[in-house]
Amino acid sequence: MTGLVDVTPEPWSGRDDGPGAEHVRWHHVVRPLVADDPPAADSPAPTTIVGFASDEGVRRNKGRTGAATGPGALRRALAPMALSGPINVFDAGDVAVTDGELEAGQERLGRVVGTLLDAGHLPLVLGGGHAVAYGSFLGLARSRAAQAGARLGVLNLDAHFDLRPDPVPSSGTPFRQIAEHERARGAQFRYAVLGISQPSNTRVLFDTADALGVRYLFDDACSVADFAVVDRFVDAFLDDVDLLYLTIDLDVLPAAVAPGVSAPAAYGVPVETVQRVCDRVARSGRLALCDVAELNPALDIDGRTARTAARLLHRIVTARA
Ligand SMILES: N=CN[C@@H](CCC(=O)O)C(=O)O
Ligand SMILES: [Mn+2]
Ligand SMILES: [Mn+2]
Fold it and tell me: Which residues bind Mn(2+) 1 (predicted)?
């Protein structure tokens, strides 16, 4: 996909304990995807990594910049992870936003994601600030399946609604932009958020969410004791969609687990719950697209945010393999 990305994929490397399946780690099996036409999907359908190296949306949203180096840090955290079975994963390289051209970068990401979807791949997009979500969604909405009438749903794991009314796109606006995109093409906006922090969202944002029919669960209703509620929430949303886009904003996790984000969570959803949701979605047969957003390696402590994110992505990829 060298014609569609800005940065071509590098070979992966990492710790090597010897040959054979018993020693295999991610870096042994991830293959660079360089052809402009992605190989047709086999079984299991390939997962293809695309980076979105951008923190322009975070900057515009008055956040702490640094997420542009997130894709590299996530690849480095995934590379040494040991595999207990085969996976089918490509790396297509990065879309890189420079000189503040966020909107053009989102368009480019949409083209990569749409191309991968039409070839039967699961795009796994590594952000980047949460402005990545609008680019990811553009690809899904323009895919052949969506154009043929598939019901799309966005499940966001996030402390924030990201439904800001600001006219300038940023990391605070992607789901309001998606709502407008869906309205413009005559499609229903199906958006669910798990992990909403009440003190991190103004009344305006709650009113916007209500007006748009957004389904949400608060962070303090997502503990391990709340698994039954969380399961029902996820299953009800899955029942209502044909193709699910899962977007993970790492600030949904407690700050102790995910300090390396623009806006660390004072409360947060425990990693047990987030992993449970990832498992459920990955096994649903409806997961079409996934991204992870807001990793800021410069603010991370001992790489713990990157490691947690990589572990969740590992879980998603291996659960559906
Ligand atoms: N991705 C954006 N999230 C938040 C940031 C909040 C903050 O910086 O405190 C938002 O815009 O609401
Ligand atoms: Mn957030
Ligand atoms: Mn967000």
Answer: 130, 158, 162, 249
- The reply to whether 130 sits in an annotated binding site is yes
The complex scores an ipTM of 0.97
Residue in 25, 149, 150 with CA at minimum distance from that of residue 89: 25
pTM above 0.95, yes or no: yes
User: Is the minimum distance from the CB of 38 to ligand 1 under 6 angstroms?
Assistant: no
CA 321 to chain centre: 18
- CA–CA separation, 203 vs 161, rounded Å? 11
Residues 144-167: tens digit of each pLDDT = 999 999 999 999 999 999 999 999
Structure tokens at 168: 């300038």
Among 60, 132, 160, 161, the mutation site with the greatest number of ligand 1 atoms within 8 A of its Cβ is 160
* Beta-carbon contacts of residue 16 (< 8 Å; ≥ 6 apart): 23, 25, 28
36 is in an annotated binding site: no
Longest dimension (CA), the chain: 57
Q: How many Å from the N-terminal Cα to the C-terminal Cα in the chain?
A: 23
Alpha carbon distance 262, 164 (integer Å): 17
